[in-house]
Amino acid sequence: MSAPGAGAARAEEFATRLAAVRTRIAEACRAAGRDPAEVELVAVTKTVPAEDVALLLDLGLETFGENRVQEAGAKVERVAELRPAARPRWSLVGGLQRNKAAAAARWADRVESVDSIRVADALDRAVRRLLETGGRAAPLPVLLQFSVDGDPRRGGVPAADLEPLAEHVARCGGLQLRGVMAVAPLGMEQDRAFSAVATAANRVRTRFPQANTLSAGMSGDFESAIRHGSDVVRVGTALVGDRPLASP
């Protein structure tokens, strides 16, 4: 059980952190000649309890990013119990295995990590079944995860395969191609990484104008991502503090 006043202290901590993040976003947008309203803030809440998500909702945050399908499904239900009047949006920002596509399709409002035709097909089948049975009201918006350096040990599709994957997803009746997501590789200079991301995203957008969302940038590098046109920043540590590493 939490100590008396623990919830209020946590809410105050979140408010302070959120104000700092919003200031950073605003300053980055000013430097880039952009309107801060153009940048969506996704609070990455992996390993964060539903009670904390409820406090973040109270502070005006609307979109939450989760990395693990099972953890997220239970959290979505619990947040709905805690804040029944709220309508949070949930993004899957971590890698997705095909055997978890059906579970993700039940709660995700957006999947940002489609990086193969097999994953796209698994999601498409799951969403179409839900559409037929009333489990979803609309197709699932997805972003394609781009691998900046093409390293197969990390998630993401290399540059040569990005447009073919976009073509495939655009034909999936259960999915809506909305854009590109990327993570800057460790050790790569930030502006170089996000310049490559922007180039890849622009290629996809040119062929598929509806794919106009770029999700790039996290707690330590989102200023650079904003300079290179990111519309979505995924912020965890800067909002909720350090969290213990969780097993996959």
End-to-end Cα distance, whole Å, is: 27 Å
Helix fraction, binned, reads 40-55%
Strand content: 15-25%
Instruction: Note poorly predicted spans.
Output: none
Main sheet: strands, sense, barrel: 8 strands, parallel
Name the shape in a single word: globular
Protein name: Pyridoxal phosphate homeostasis protein
Domain Alanine racemase N-terminal: 18-244
Pfam families: Ala_racemase_N (PF01168)
Family: Belongs to the pyridoxal phosphate-binding protein YggS/PROSC family.
What's this model, at a glance?
Residues 18-244 form the Alanine racemase N-terminal domain. Belongs to the pyridoxal phosphate-binding protein YggS/PROSC family. The chain has helices spanning 6-32, 50-58, 69-82, 101-107, 117-133, 159-170, 190-207, 222-227, 237-240, and strands at residues 40-44, 63-66, 89-92, 110-114, 140-146, 175-182, 213-216, 232-235.
Description:
There is one protein chain. The chain is of the alpha/beta class and 248 residues long. It has a single domain, classed as Alpha-Beta Barrel (TIM Barrel). It is 46% helix and 17% strand. The chain is built from nine helices and eight strands. Helix 2 links the parallel strand 1 and strand 2. Helix 2 packs across helix 3, helix 3 runs parallel beside helix 4 and helix 6 runs parallel beside helix 7.
Supply database-style keywords:
248 residues, alpha/beta, TIM Barrel, eight-stranded parallel beta sheet, 9 helices, 8 strands
